[in-house]
Amino acid sequence: MAQSITEDSVRAALTDRLKASHVEVQDMSGGCGQAFTSLIVSPEFVGKNSLKRHRLVNAALKDEIAQIHAWSAKCQTPEEYEKEKAATGGNDGPPLDGTAGGEVTGVSQ
């Protein structure tokens, strides 16, 4: 039986597998573990375009992604993250496009 996917398990996997220095994960499914969004900061992204960064993330989370319905990620290098944090006052996090209050609309438990 597959383990349930949680914010904590995704965060731990990303931190370990991508040597991420900062990871934010949000369950947008209302707690049922089927839709996640994330902000991932890793030196592994340096010199890679957006597509290559997302491919790295998808490969790192291959087993987890196979068990969930929706996944989105914002991938930044440490330098990009620090610049954006300075520009936004640290109020930028995972992408929440298509959500209402951080949850996918139409989802019920």
UniProtKB/TrEMBL annotation:
Residue segments, region Disordered: 76-109
Ranges annotated as biased composition (Gly residues): 99-109
Cross-referenced InterPro entries: BOL2 (IPR045115), BolA (IPR002634), BolA-like_sf (IPR036065)
Gene3D superfamilies assigned: Phosphatidylinositol 3-kinase Catalytic Subunit, Chain A, domain 1 (3.10.20.90)
Recorded superkingdom: Eukaryota
SUPFAM superfamilies: BolA-like
Similarity section: Belongs to the BolA/IbaG family.
Protein name per UniProt: BolA-like protein
Record organism: Podospora bellae-mahoneyi
Species classification: Eukaryota, Fungi, Dikarya, Ascomycota, Pezizomycotina
